[in-house]
Design a protein that fits this description.
Blueprint: E1 11-13, E2 23-33, E3 40-50, E4 54-56, H1 58-66, H2 75-90, E5 94-101, E6 110-116
Antiparallel strand pairs: 1-4, 2-3, 3-5, 5-6
């Protein structure tokens, strides 16, 4: 196999650092293992962020996400760990991760974790007629 899972996240320079803009990434095939039973847990991850000086490189993100397939993790822990790793890699102005885990045992879990840079203030919302 030409590529392997990796915890190494790569970044590239933001092509428009003066502007606030949002990058949205949807990952419909996230998998980790239940730390209690060892059974697979499946989720769709939604990553939204306002970059500062760096952006996350998508191929590296794919390999990073793939690295969780054989790891046991509670939903809350894995969502927050992914947020911490991504924030450490790219230091965004704002980042939100929404992890929508599939139904298991009649229960569906959604975990939302956010980071906001202390010096960043979002622009007020624009309402169009």
């Amino acid at each position: 196999m030409p590529t392997q899972p990796s915890k190494q996240l790569e970044v590239f320079d933001n092509p428009m650092p003066p502007r606030d803009y949002t990058i949205r990434i949807r990952i419909p095939e996230f998998t980790c293992l239940c730390p209690k039973t060892g059974q697979p847990d499946f989720a769709t991850l939604h990553i939204e962020y306002v970059p500062d000086q760096r952006c996350i490189e998508l191929r590296a993100l794919k390999l990073y996400i793939w690295s969780y397939r054989q790891e046991g993790a509670f939903h809350e822990a894995v969502t927050n760990r992914i947020l911490e790793d991504l924030v450490q890699a790219c230091a965004p102005r704002f980042m939100r991760i929404t992890a929508k885990f599939n139904v298991r045992g009649g229960i569906q879990t959604t975990v939302i974790a956010e980071h906001r840079a202390p010096t960043w203030t979002p622009a007020p919302p624009v309402t169009l007629p």
